[in-house]
Amino acid sequence: MKRIRLVLRLIAGTLFLGTLAACASHLPPLTSAPVSESTPVYRIAAGDELQIYVAGHPDLSTTVPVGPDGRISIPLVQGIEAEGKTPSQLAKDIEKHLARYIRNPDVTVIVRSFNSSFSNEVRVIGQAVKPQAIPYSKGMTLLDALTAVGGLTPYAAGNHAELIRRVDGKEKVYRVYLSSLLNGNMKDNARLQPGDVIVIPQKLF
What we know:
- By secondary structure, the protein is of the alpha+beta class.
- It is built from four helices and ten strands, in the order H-E-E-E-E-H-E-E-E-H-E-E-H-E.
- The protein has helices at residues 2-24, 87-98, 142-148, 178-182; strands at 49-54, 62-65, 71-74, 77-81, 107-113, 121-126, 132-135, 161-167, 170-176, 197-200.
């Protein structure tokens, strides 16, 4: 009798492992894919709205529009050239200016709304390994977009990310759980639409 029970357990274990393997084969790969050097990177334009976050200095953190002249002004620093730069480039420029007033400034720039229209792209900005605009393809999901940008940086607050989508001419903001998705929770793998913007904030330490 014990021998029969042992055989039954071995058969059940084999079937369970086979079921897991079959399920895993249908999941999209979670590893990063190489990104073409020709893939466009978003550059700030006049009319964009920028969120400027200065770590440890809430009095300096603000949201500002890019003026018609392509410049922005923030507390302590006026008339910084923003147009044509990537968010990371602008962040470094702001850090250089703020270094005159505070020690080792740590600045993050996030584009909150866009003046220009990228109707056939999905943009990923903020704490992605390679933030950029990705050509939209039919059936594209959040996981596809994350794979294209190389995943999240160690500083990303992935479960506090937002998806900005224009619906009936108005921008709507949806919470997305990117860290959970990358950990295998496929219910968070939402379908994307052309023009979507995924904003990945930095962790607040």
